[in-house]
């Protein structure tokens, strides 16, 4: 059986630096566990805009569709020109085109972080609709201005998307979480129809998992609870925008966005993507933290391991995770944003060394 094909997209800002570092980890895992990976690259972002007139050419989308997994570097989409001038958000395009409906975002306090409360939860975020203007309409954006002084936004919540994100959350809680506890976050006291529909579907799925504890919390209350008592929660399932905000909050409480892995997954495709942005202010200095993207690749390997029933991919994922934990525990390999004296490369090479030692 041939190994997985991965498409690697560098992106903007610090993207090329952390993608190069992450690729070194991928290649080390490939060698150590004989994964027979096939790695391909393509340009997106400003580089693609300069070369082709768009930040994500159709050929890249087709290459992503043909690949077994995608590794996406951060992009500077806020700085892109209007969509009519080629300034598409590559992340949003790939999530929509590949139907990556589940954004899985773990937040876990690393062992070396002593000044934070213990956090160990996962936000399961619906990824294809909601208030996001590039994902809520079949044709055209979900925002419009009927006159110069009014801007309107459309929020889309469907039964299908609500049901399948709930199924993702309960399956995750059942298979991988010791607590087996799911919390649906909503604002149905105000958004009665849209969040009401979301809760209807989550409750139907919850009824199929009577052994999993289930409750519901308003989004504003959840933000307060996460700050005060984050260790009470296990799996949080919610709509797109609420999940985006709460996952960043949870990751920051757990040690920072620079540590937070993220997987965008659907039925047939998955994409590893760091939670943080492109940080152009530190680009080219060699100090960007690749931990989030490396952690995301470990999640991608786990997803591929399940689909391919591959023990070696699962072993590679564990080796990346433990190697990253050991690298982060050493101030000499940690990047400056984490209080270390290392660099992008020292962190990556520490992970590579652990992977190599594990397999020897």
Please, could you describe this protein's structure?
One of its GO terms (biological process) is tricarboxylic acid cycle. Pfam families: Iso_dh. This protein has 360 residues and is of the alpha/beta class. It has 2 domains: 1-100 and 268-360, Isopropylmalate Dehydrogenase; 117-254, Isopropylmalate Dehydrogenase (3-Layer(aba) Sandwich). Helix content is 43%, strand content 17%. The chain has 11 helices and 12 strands. 50% of the residues are buried.
Structural features:
360 residues, alpha/beta, Isopropylmalate Dehydrogenase, 2 domains, ten-stranded mixed β-sheet, two-stranded antiparallel sheet, 11 helices, 43% helix
Indicate the topology.
Layout: E1 5-9, H1 15-33, E2 38-42, H2 45-52, H3 58-66, E3 69-72, H4 90-97, E4 102-108, E5 120-126, E6 143-147, E7 150-153, H5 159-176, E8 181-186, H6 194-207, E9 213-218, H7 219-228, E10 235-238, H8 240-254, E11 263-265, E12 270-273, H9 291-308, H10 311-329, H11 344-359
Parallel strand pairs: 1-2, 1-3, 3-12, 5-10, 8-9, 8-10
Antiparallel strand pairs: 4-5, 4-11, 6-7, 11-12
Helix pairs in contact: 1-9, 1-10, 1-11, 5-6, 7-8, 9-10, 10-11
Number of helical regions: 11
Query: Largest beta sheet, briefly?
Result: 10 strands, mixed
Strand order of the largest sheet: 2-1-3-12-11-4-5-10-8-9
The coarse overall form would be globular
Termini separation comes to 24 Å
Work out the helicity level: 40-55%
CATH superfamily heading of the largest domain: Isopropylmalate Dehydrogenase
Query: What share of residues are in beta strands?
Result: 15-25%
Structural class: alpha/beta
Uncertain regions spanning at least 5 consecutive residues? none
CATH topology of the largest domain: Isopropylmalate Dehydrogenase
CATH class of the largest domain: Alpha Beta
> What is the overall pLDDT average?
95
CATH architecture of the largest domain: 3-Layer(aba) Sandwich
Order of helices and strands: EHEHHEHEEEEHEHEHEHEEHHH
Number of domains: 2
DSSP strand tally: 12
């Amino acid at each position: 059986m041939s190994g997985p094909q991965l498409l690697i997209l560098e992106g903007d800002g610090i993207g090329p630096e952390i993608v190069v570092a992450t690729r070194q980890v991928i290649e080390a895992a490939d060698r150590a566990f004989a994964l027979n990976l096939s790695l391909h690259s393509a340009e997106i972002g400003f580089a693609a805009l300069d070369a082709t007139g768009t930040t994500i050419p159709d050929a890249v989308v087709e290459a992503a569709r043909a690949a077994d997994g995608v590794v996406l570097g951060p992009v500077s989409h806020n700085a892109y020109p209007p969509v009519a001038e080629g300034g598409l958000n590559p992340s949003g395009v790939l999530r929509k085109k590949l139907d990556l409906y589940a954004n899985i975002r773990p937040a876990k306090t690393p062992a070396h972080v002593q000044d934070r409360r213990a956090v160990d939860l996962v936000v399961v975020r619906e990824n294809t609709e909601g208030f996001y203007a590039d994902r809520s309409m079949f044709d055209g954006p979900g925002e419009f201005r009927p006159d110069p002084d009014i801007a309107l936004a459309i929020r889309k919540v469907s039964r299908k998307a609500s049901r399948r994100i709930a199924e993702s959350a309960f399956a995750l809680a059942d298979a991988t979480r010791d607590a087996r506890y799911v919390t649906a976050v909503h604002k149905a006291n105000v958004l009665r129809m849209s969040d009401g529909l979301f809760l209807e579907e989550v409750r139907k799925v919850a009824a199929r998992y009577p052994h999993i504890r289930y409750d519901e919390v308003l989004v504003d209350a959840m933000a307060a609870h996460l700050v005060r008592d984050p260790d009470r929660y296990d799996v949080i399932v919610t709509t797109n925008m609420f999940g985006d905000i709460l996952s960043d909050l949870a990751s920051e409480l757990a040690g920072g966005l620079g540590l937070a892995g993220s997987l965008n997954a659907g039925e047939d495709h998955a994409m590893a993507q760091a939670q943080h942005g492109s940080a152009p202010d530190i680009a080219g200095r060699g100090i960007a933290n690749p931990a989030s993207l490396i952690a995301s690749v470990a999640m991608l390997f786990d997803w591929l391991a399940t689909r391919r029933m591959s023990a070696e991919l699962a072993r590679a994922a564990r080796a990346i995770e433990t190697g990253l934990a050991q690298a982060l525990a050493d101030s000499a390999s940690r990047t400056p944003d984490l209080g270390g004296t290392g660099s992008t490369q020292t962190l990556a090479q520490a992970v590579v060394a652990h992977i190599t030692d594990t397999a020897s």
